[in-house]
Design brief:
Length: about 80
């Protein structure tokens, strides 16, 4: 899942402490997390997402990225 890592997602296991003190639900689809489930912390929006929502968010970010082609000659401002 290198694409998701590029977009600042931290893969974690849903521990009882996270479920009790932080979040029991995916911030995107509101599906309840199960203990031991793989969840993803979105460091840009400070929220936990399920795997499906994290992958969708990463895909959306990839599509929104602007592609910049490198110039053949090294250039500067002038």
């Amino acid at each position: 899942m290198s694409r998701m890592e590029e977009h600042c997602f931290i893969r974690e296991e849903a521990t009882s402490r996270i479920l009790e003190c932080v979040s029991r639900y995916c911030a995107q689809c509101y599906r309840e997390f199960g203990e031991g489930e793989e969840i993803f912390y979105d460091t840009q929006n400070y929220r936990y997402l399920c795997k499906a929502c994290a992958e969708e968010q990463a895909r959306h970010l990839d599509e929104a990225c602007e592609r910049i082609d490198e110039e053949e000659e090294p250039g500067g401002l002038f």
